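Table S2 (continued). Query chain:
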Amino acid sequence: MRQETQGVTETLIKNATEEFLEYGFTKASLRRIAGSSGVSTNSIYTRFKDKEGLFKAIVDDAAAGLMNIYLESIQKAKESTNLDQACLEGGQGTNFVLDYVYQHLQEFKLIFCCSAGTEYEDYLDRLGEIEESYYLEFVRKYGQDKMTVDPFFIHVFCRAGWQTIYEVVMHNRTYKEAQSFMDSTVLFNRAGWKAVMGIEK
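Corresponding output:
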């Protein structure tokens, strides 16, 4: 009986994932999910409470995992003793993030592209806020004397940084393509930050 229940739950998760990917959260239909899974909608309510509970069951572990990886990366960068080490930790953090996203690609397609109407629709904004806080400290710590960086610039740039992850997922880049793109992005960003901080002209 337990195996049968687990099998139904796995089928619901699989079919719900396909439904959310095709229609997005708002337009997804519990009736269609139930029908393709061979159960009643009541079976979904019993297991997941509601449509958002079903969406959460699919993506929550992946969302929490990425947040933890990113926070660990930021902490290592904060603990760096010099600029080069901080940049190295930042680059490694980008690699860890990309690897994790591609290990859970369907979940992040849902979070990045299909989550409007759920608690995850501002997930990228939350990551951007963390990055913004880090870079405000980064600029104060490593910027040259009398060189200031407009906090609004930091705000916009940090939010745009997470847009790059969204773009490679949304445009269905292969992992190899995404990795090459992010490598170029890291080099570009590193040179740009040094320039606006007065470290390199």
